[in-house]
Amino acid sequence: MTTDILLQTLASGVLIGLIYALVAIGLTMIFGVMDIVNFAHGEFLMLGMYSAFWLFSLYALDPMITLPLTVLMLFAFGVLLYKLVIVRIINAPMLSQIFTTFGIMILLRGVAQFLWKPDFRSIENSAVSGTVKLLGIQLGKPQLVAGVGAIVVTGLIYFFLNKTRLGAALEATASDKEAARLMGIDSHKMFSLAWGVGAACAGAAGVLLSTFFPIFPDVGANFILLAFVVVNLGGFGSVSGAFWAGILVGVIEVMGGLLLGPQYKTAIVLVLFLGVLMFRPQGLMGKA
Amino acid sequence: MNTMKQFYFAAAALALALAVPALTDASHLNMAILVLMAAQAGIAWNMVGGYAGQVSLGHAAFYGLGAYASTLLLVKFGVNPWIGMLAGGFIAALLSLGFGWSCFRLKGHYFAMATIAVAELVQIFFTEWEYGGAAVGLYVPMDKQGWLWMNFSTKLPYYWLALGLLVITLAANWWIERSYLGYYFRAIKDEPDAARSIGVNIARYKQVALSVSAFFTAAGGSLYAQKELYIDPNSVLSTALSIKMALVSILGGVGTLFGPVVGAVVLTSIEEFTRIAFGGTGRGTDVIIYASLIIVIAVFYPTGLMGWLRSFRERREARAHADRQMAAPSAAVQTLGKEAS
Amino acid sequence: MKKSWWARVAAVLAGAGFCLCAQAQQEIKIGVLYPLTGPGASVGAELRSALELAADIINNGAPGVSELPLSAGKGLPNLKGAKIKLVFADHQANPQTGATEAERLITQEKVVALVGAYNSAVTATASQIAERAGIPFLNPESSSASLTQRNFKWFFRTTPHDDLFVHNAFDFLKELEAKKGIKAGVVASLNENGLWGTETTKLQTKLAPEFKQNLVKQVMYPAKTTQLTSEVQTLKAANPNLVLQSSYTADAILSIKTYKELGFSPDMILANNAGFTDTDFIKTLGKDADYIITREVWALDLANRNPLIKQVNDLFNSRYKINFTGNSSRTFTGLMVMADAINRAGSTEPEAIRKALAATDMPGSKLIMPWKGVKFDATGQNTLGQGILVQIMGGKYNTVWPFDMASREVTWPMPKWDQRK
Predict the structure, then answer these.
(1) Given an 8 Å threshold on Cβ–Cβ distance, is A258 in contact with C263?
(2) A264 to B108: CB separation less than 8 angstroms, yes or no
(3) CA distance linking residue B122 with residue B135, whole number of Å
(4) Which among A261, B69, B178, B331 is placed 20 to 30 Å from B185, CA to CA?
(5) What is the pLDDT averaged over residues C141-149?
(6) Which domain does B188 fall in, by range?
(7) What is the torsional sign of CA B247, B250, B251, B252?
């Protein structure tokens, strides 16, 4: 096992970890603001991938260019989903919430198969294809761009939450719904905002993935378990937690798979995850 | 539901269950067996998920442990499946100690997520474990048949078996509900702080609920193995299976005795019906309908169908009460009416 | 007197009516069990098309395929022109669902036989039901060897199984060295860790030393994954000349992209069907798929030895806009074999069909597969089947082995990624 391979694996781990982080950020925001675990989050990813694919195949528009459009569409979709379904289960018991989002997950997969058939799709020869050598490490351009894109979007979210009034309102609702309402912040608006932003983040991750990952209706299933682990590890509701936990999970998964055998890569992540929870039940950066 | 009502409901359900074989053909009988098995798994889950309020989304781990335990004992050591089923139940209950130890210090969503992680680890273990057949799975031999070996060539004996297991699991749940255990479970679910302050050992009783639940879930797994005659990590250890066990209770009503039974009937019927009617087309319409129904029930009936039934009855009684009030006005009103005219 | 006259007229009319009914066309219901939703739905859709084409040819005929049995389009001649009716059922890649649907098809739909189910695990449970019910079950595509090791009477499989397929790969390497002087060198394997990949890995472990191949590393991975970096880096570290690979579609596509991303260029990739022969594989990868050799069961260029292959493919392509693959062609063949057996049985009695299946002896010229024929041994396995090896060039599958059936020479090694245009 040369240092070359170890370094390259580490770099790959960080890059895929950034994608995990972006998916998890959306998920953790939804939880942080309204206490709902969204099982259908992987499907926002899937929709983002299909959006990038169709805009590319039908209009020859590169995913990097259509990224903002897809993000907006997913935001609108998230808000729509909130207004149609989620708003009714805000105060329902946790189990009902879990099963509503679980039902949405299955529904979206079924609709995707219905509309676009179960075939596998891929985006070939987009503007970001090929490889690049950075500091002696070979990296795929799509993966590198995806990683950078994830950092950019995370930065935007961070800026939004901490430096804008709307973001502050969102944070306020997340920490104390009643107090925020007393200050004149409309909870429902905040909830639909959270869903929209959450969906948009996952959609963005989907677009970034679409340049190198196969696209099919059930693709969300590949990512959802790891997304949940990242959210838990980072601490439910913590955006920075999700960011760092995402990178950590990506690195552990890839390095662990390399050193202990790829068939155990998920097991290694899960063991780490359970281990952390035993000593820090609130996750790395969650509120105790 | 008070005891008398429970008794009547149970008697009616049992009568229906006994009549089913006479009324149906093999294929419908098979579906009835699926309902019974789903109900049994749901009731087992309900013991810890509904009554004690510990929402586990990793119960397939116990189901699979039961299936693998009894099958491995049979295939490798020639152990009778009846004994294997009991052994599997105890093994699962034992391993639930580890499950509980790692997960019970967590709360709410963290706990649920941890249970998913543990179950996924169990599935990965069985996928890699050569002795247990790894990903290739295990076949249950068909050479020894009859009640002694829990292996039949027709569906009817499996129906009685599934019904028997369901009745036993239900009886156990009923007994627990009425005993001090049930009292503690409800306390843990609804008022854990108050319970702790009066000296109830929360951790111990959570574990008790989990172990009992694990035992019965594993028994269901053994039955699956003996019926389908082939198990692999995907069919008895998947997260999808865990979700289904919990879903059955939610649809029917968590924390109620018959909730999982009702939920199993509804869920299995919807699943089978949509797939049979629309699955052949391959467009995915059956999946869309199934998912929509789950969403509708989860959104509009959060207390499950039993809860809806209860509130329906309560509203009817309230209305009947109001009608009686309207029909017989009070004496004061009558006097006023006389004076006015 | 009048009463008995009327009675006689009634009897005659009834008799005539009965004869008419017997003349009227019967429908032969065959249950077909495939993954139409969920994982495997992509393949399931193609298999469905293959089945519909086969049934249509039998029922309504088709031009230009005279060698194909029952292609006159008059249904089953020995059953008075009865037509085939396919009853589709979706098993969603779930063994219990497969068993449930098999049960339903047999007892409710009253099918005379079952054909299915692609996924080995589902075939395992569904065929149990058929075995218990005494209904013939024909399996055209599942490759797990254990399926014909169960001493079943009612189970028949037309496709060769994994044991033969892995042998094919090693036979190819042996002949490659003997006849073309190309050595495999250091060998590593990359297999998914489900039922199929696990069995393949075991077979490769067993056969490599027998064939004197230097298998230095065996990597296994979960097919439903988000990245294959660890896997490819592990392979890179082993520095093999040849990679033996068994992957499903999504991971096959992902693996090639990852090879390219991480600059891993072995001399050759020798794949094991499945994802590599999926219609979407070349479609999504384009030029990056070139040079890969994969075991297959069917190839269009074999039409020069057996014109029927192209004739039937033309029909398939004109209808569904895609070519056959090893999977869809085997499913097509499976239904043909079943229909032929029912026809020879001349009856819909299960035992008669079973006897006819057991007596099947279809020559290769009547098949669209490059097989010597279809003949079942005592375990229900077709002994005349075989695999072939194809190399992807210019976006097409070209037969390269057996050498006497090859349409082009093997190009070995593959050019490195950075040396391709």
Answers:
(1) no
(2) no
(3) 13
(4) B69
(5) 92
(6) 3-302
(7) positive
